């Protein structure tokens, strides 16, 4: 069936599923879905995607069912990414696929688990959640008869790896993010088989997914922090952008109940960032005048982004959340316990890999410590919070209650 079935209004600089650079393992096209739609659907049906339901975003699950998990955060990111892509004439399906896959590589217990695994893997190539997401979609998901992984398109894999910008410069040297530890081996290994252009920016769709992530977690961490009582509304006034929004709400609805103020604040944060992102991106796109998607990739800087004023507001929000939420005493206490759980599990499984399920311990050479460590990291990274705690209870006499 002709690809025209999937045509919609699309800017010339949008990624075009009819012109995809393809998959590592060639497949026949679908008569009912574009290649980017197939990628999105494969991600949704992946085991790693389902496990996001029980992985911590910022709080661990003991805080209650009303707080974000990796899955609810991911859904919120995908909604914002679609809105940005639609407004900018980008391919919505690719933007959605990238938003849905951006957190697949995260460990249990949020960034605490990632930090712990990074330390445990320091002598064995390190741990990076973007590299882990690539491992999941190219190796660890075992669903298809013809290949390991999901066999996603080049455009989805490129965006997954580079949504935060190029990984190396034109001379092949790691960019700032990877200067200290180098580009993760999993990315370099895959790139040798399927060149993802690590020295360029990603597509406009990937850039839209990246700022959608910033918008979602900034707004929703404020919402979760308020509902958890980590800080009060008045404390937000130290951020001028938030103070102005609160004044706007108070002027329109004097004496509005706290829960509705929180909701109105969240709505306004998302709306202002989305509108600013669209306006600034339109301005940059007009200045660049990209003839195709590769012109965005080869641009000197990101094209889909916030204005300088809104970027400063974003930094101010993060500057508030870091001490008041991510380093709040109650959160730090739980993070410390979760850190110990991950380190305990890594040490025990590395020492005795036979304690892992069969598919994880098969084909391991006792003398190959690097391969054993990576297998243990893969196993732990795929755990949900609850499964990690259950495994700890199985292997240790005392397990933290995470409270």
TrEMBL record:
Alphabetized Pfam families for the sequence: HD, HD_assoc
Q: Name one GO biological process term.
A: dGTP catabolic process
Where would I find the HD domain in this sequence?
70-218
Name it: Deoxyguanosinetriphosphate triphosphohydrolase-like protein
Q: Which family does it belong to?
A: Belongs to the dGTPase family. Type 2 subfamily.
Report if keyword 4Fe-4S is assigned.
no
Q: Any idea which UniProt keywords this protein has?
A: Hydrolase
Organism from which the protein derives: Alsobacter metallidurans
